[in-house]
Design a protein that fits this description.
heterotrimer, A alpha/beta, B mainly alpha, C alpha/beta, A: alpha/beta, Peroxisomal Thiolase, Chain A, domain 1, two-stranded antiparallel sheet, B: mainly alpha, 3 helices, globular
Chain lengths: ~400, ~90, ~450
């Protein structure tokens, strides 16, 4: 009998609010976190908008470490981790510290340190550069910073699988708990806005100028964003023993690789379909038992079309009965945090029986003809939620959450 | 534009392509299409466009990028840009 | 720990390193005490002089990967794909087999390519963002090398990148082993890769962690700027010959003063023992167990640091169902770092100090340098060779011990030694930021 693993705490830092309650309220209201970019000058770029997190004060969340010595992604991750622990009614010292672990996904690590390095490098000011590139930039510092802040001495890992990283982190935490390597895991993802990421997606021609419009016929692309999402995961028996609120249970996951192209998905959605099928098989569920799909839905012409193909491949006719929405319409693409925040949304959907909308959906696209929950959140019983994420390099990750059942 | 100028443009473009594909410049046919003939994936084809932009210091309007499919398309594009630039 | 019924075996290995691109060549070089470290020539910069590095010299990716265009792959992706090619050949996983079945990849990397991300940004800064390279951007993500290798070799199983600093490679092997044990996968390449570049060398030298750095900055992980005296063109430091002990890493030695950066890629083919047997594959060894721990003091507090490494080793042995007396040899993570090596030695003492005989140990980073994400994979490949012929490499340059070095618990020496049929081995990986991982390997008997 494998141990059952549940989500007991949710912490998020997003462009539409920090903390589960504010975030969920704004999400269901269809709020957009997209705004004019302020963290660097957009002169010389084709577009000016992004999903930056405004008014975030690291000092509000970082107690033990010095916030000034932390990169932004670490600050977000610590904030989301503390919020998740608080939400779970757990204190950092609640268990033996080697039983508590941290796994975080990311795309870029702490790119601001590369940017600062280069700012000096191009001015031939090498002597003004410190050790940041070796000691503060590499992504493992994010999980290390969360664990040092909370004094968690157990499992500690980064799963930097780019745009699917959050799902990978939650999957690994799930396995670590089931394997008895931990009794509490904080798992999720974090990424900070950077000129590097913004430049890169601009150069791929993938960025929309004004709004992110997943599945809309006139969609122009994604909008880079930032943020963090962390979930507190525990074995069911522990959660019950301490009377914790249980948002959802993790039913299973599937991982696959297209092995096809670095930045574009497989034309027939073959790899994505395999990941979904594996997740369903592990969860012992039929496709038609899924109540809601949180799409990767970046808003690029290609992704949304191919994702629709992949979903139909797995769900067949049932695809038309399953609401599928993309919260990237509101937050933009938060990179490594995306699938973690989306997993949190799935847990909340299962808990509250509400489904968030895909906003900015005005003109249907004949190639994207599923029910994308256009513009209005929907009240509906959510037994099972599937969270899909697809990354550079063709990595596909599907995670399934379900209402905690009594048997 | 003088034919020799066009030849020069063509050979500079072929040098850019050669760097990205590892195919010697002299083996790249004038009419070669990036994806079908030279076997580039879409990312490499995009890299060719951007490196050509960098080489000649101009930007292809976004709407025209998908229409740049062959070496010859690229030569025409650069020719057009340089002609406008000298007017 | 849950009882596990599936055994994980190693059916092949591929390596590209500063000491050779086959397990045999690597093993010969290590046993001969050869070092891969020399003054780096592929880059230089004002203020850094001519630092030492254990680079993979004369790397010709085409010789492993054929004639297809390699330009989309940056150096680390090429190293990874080359090691993957060798591991696939070594384990007999043909193209045809990979079309039929999904083989995965779990790659450990610390930076992946800090060089590519820095160059991408620099071009945007100097030429303008409109001319930044989309192809380079695809390689800036930390999972890029794993993605490129999967495309190159049609690896359609789980594709995962693991980053735990210098412990990444060993952690990736542990991660892959667990995927097999839990039934999620039956075949995965696992290990790590890293490339050496100006950006990483500069960062570590500024942290005062490299060999020959200013002693006043030694051991300060988030250190202040230090002044690196720099080497002249002949590789001499302050007039001293570069073969002087101060400029090569000497793990565990009392005179050690830091590490040298290395690069490379090493991948093991891990398989479910039953499916491996069914296809007639030969098992070189079994991944018997693993353990981990995190030091919240990040190496600053000796007690915490030692406790974390101790936890990792004990957990690995529990997972492997082995007693300290049953371990025949140990591959230490020690790389010449002043604090780190000491923490590991004390941890080994805590775990193995009650043995009748000290534990024969080695530290191959004395010759390969600290390869960051690639280290764990290299340690595993080297250990497979030790299991094959019983020769345990020495620690190059080792002469003097600290007063508190636990010689009753750890047996190390400068020369290689012949061990009697080593059956069980423990490998350690200790990162600069508190990550600890230990892996237990068991040599396979002839029969399954």
């Amino acid at each position: 009998m494998r141990r059952r693993i549940v989500i007991t705490g949710i912490g998020v830092v997003t462009s539409i609010g920090a903390g589960r309650e504010v975030f969920w309220r704004n999400l269901l209201a269809g709020s957009s976190g997209i705004s004019e970019i302020e963290s660097f000058s957009t002169a010389g770029y084709r577009t000016r908008r992004g999903g930056e997190v405004k008014e975030f004060q690291a000092e509000d969340y970082v107690e033990r470490l010095n916030p000034a010595g932390l990169g932004r992604a670490s600050q977000f991750a610590i904030a989301a981790a503390r919020l998740a622990l608080e939400d779970a009614s757990l204190s950092a010292g609640a268990l033996a510290f080697e039983q508590a672990g941290v796994v975080v996904g990311t795309t870029s690590g702490e790119p601001q340190f590369v940017e600062r390095f280069n700012d000096h490098y191009v001015k031939r000011e090498l002597m003004r550069i410190g050790p940041e590139l070796a000691m503060l930039y590499p992504c493992h510092v994010i999980a290390a910073n969360v664990a040092s802040e909370l004094k968690f001495g157990g499992v500690n890992l980064m799963t930097p699988s780019a745009c699917a990283a959050g799902n990978y982190a939650i999957a690994h935490a799930f396995d670590a708990l089931r394997g008895g390597r931990a009794e509490l895991m904080l798992a999720g993802g974090s990424d900070a806005f950077s000129r590097i990421t913004f430049t890169g997606f601009s150069q791929l021609g993938a960025v929309a100028p004004e709004r992110c419009q997943p599945f809309d016929r006139n969609r122009r692309g994604m909008i880079p964003g930032e943020g963090a999402g962390m979930l507190a995961l525990e074995p069911l028996d522990r959660a019950l023993a301490r009377g914790a609120r249980i948002y959802a249970e993790i039913a299973g996951y599937g991982l696959s690789c297209d092995a096809h192209h670095m930045t574009a998905a497989h034309a027939e959605g073959e790899g994505a379909a395999r990941a979904m099928r594996q997740a369903l098989a592990e969860s012992d569920l039929l496709p038609e038992e899924v109540s809601y799909i949180s799409a990767h839905g970046t808003g690029t012409p290609t992704n949304d079309r191919l994702e629709t193909v992949a979903v139909k491949r797995v769900f067949d006719g049932a695809a038309y009965q399953i609401p599928i929405s993309s919260i990237k319409s509101m937050l933009g693409h938060t990179m490594g945090a995306a699938s973690a925040i989306e997993a949190a949304v799935c847990a909340l959907a299962v808990f509250h029986d509400w489904i968030p909308p895909t906003i900015n959906l005005e003109t249907p696209d004949p190639e994207c003809d599923l029910d994308y929950v256009p513009n209005q959140a929907r009240r509906r019983r959510v037994e099972v939620a599937m969270n899909n994420a697809y990354a550079f390099g063709g990595a596909n990750a599907s995670l399934i959450l379900r209402k905690r059942t009594w048997n | 534009m003088q034919p020799t100028q066009v030849d020069e443009i063509r050979s500079r473009i072929k040098r850019v392509i050669s760097k990205i594909t590892n195919i010697p410049a002299q083996e790249i046919a004038d009419g070669a299409s990036y994806i079908e003939d030279l076997g580039l994936d879409s990312l490499s084809a995009l890299e060719v466009v951007i490196d050509v932009e960098f080489e000649f210091q101009f930007k292809v309007p976004e709407s025209e990028v998908p229409e740049v499919r062959t070496v010859e398309d690229t030569v025409r594009l650069v020719e057009r840009h340089l002609s406008f630039a000298t007017v | 720990m849950e009882l596990k019924s599936r055994k994980v075996v190693i059916t092949g290995a591929g390596v590209v390193s500063s000491l050779g691109d086959s397990p045999g060549a690597l093993h010969s070089a290590l046993c001969a005490g050869r070092s891969g470290a020399r003054p780096i020539e592929s880059f230089s910069a004002e203020g850094v002089g001519c630092p030492m590095g254990a680079a993979v010299e004369d790397f010709v990716p085409q010789s492993y990967l054929g004639d297809r265009n390699l330009r989309p792959l940056n150096r680390i992706a090429q190293l990874t794909a080359a090691a993957a090619q060798l591991a696939l050949e070594s384990s007999g996983w043909s193209d045809a087999m990979r079309r039929e079945r999904e083989v995965g990849l779990a790659l450990g990397a610390m930076f992946c390519s800090v060089k590519t991300i820095a160059e991408f940004d620099r071009r945007a800064l100097t030429a303008g963002p409109a001319y930044a390279s989309p192809m380079d951007f695809a390689n800036t993500v930390i999972s890029a090398a794993a993605g490129q290798a999967a495309i190159w070799h049609n690896l359609r199983g789980v594709n995962s990148t693991i980053a735990t600093g210098a412990a990444s490679g060993l952690q990736a092997i542990a991660y892959a082993a667990d995927l097999i044990r839990s039934g999620r996968a039956t075949a995965l390449l696992a290990g790590g890769a890293e490339e050496i570049c100006f950006e990483s060398v500069f960062g570590f030298y500024r942290a005062g962690l490299l060999c020959g750095s200013d002693p006043s900055s030694r051991g300060r992980a988030n250190g202040h700027a230090t002044f690196y005296s720099g080497y002249d063109k002949e590789g001499r430091h302050n007039g001293a010959d570069h073969r002087d002990a101060g400029h090569f890493p000497i793990p565990f030695d009392a005179r050690r003063n830091g590490f040298v950066l290395g690069e490379g890629a090493a991948l093991l083919m891990l398989e479910d023992a039953r499916t491996a047997a069914a296809r007639g594959a030969r098992a070189l060894a079994e991944v018997r167990g693993h353990g981990g721990g995190f030091d919240c003091s990040r190496g600053w507090d000796t007690g915490h640091a030692v406790a974390a490494i101790t936890r990792a080793m004990r957990q690995a042995m529990d997972d492997a169902r082995l007693l300290p007396d049953e371990i025949d040899c140990l591959s230490a993570s020690a790389n010449g770092g002043v604090a780190g090596d000491r923490h590991e030695a004390l941890a080994i003492e805590a775990v193995f100090g009650q043995r009748e005989e000290p534990l024969p140990s080695t530290a191959i980073k004395s010759m390969l340098g600290e390869m960051l994400g690639a280290s764990g994979g290299l340690q595993a490949v080297a250990m497979l060779e030790t299991m094959r012929d019983g020769r345990l490499p020495g620690i190059r340059g080792l002469e003097q011990f600290d007063k508190d070095f636990p010689r009753h618990a750890i047996s190390v020496c400068r020369q290689w030694r012949q061990l009697q049929r080593p059956r069980h081995a423990l490998l350690n990986a200790v990162g600069f930021d508190g990550h600890c991982c230990s892996l237990a390997l068991t040599a396979r008997a002839e029969e399954f």
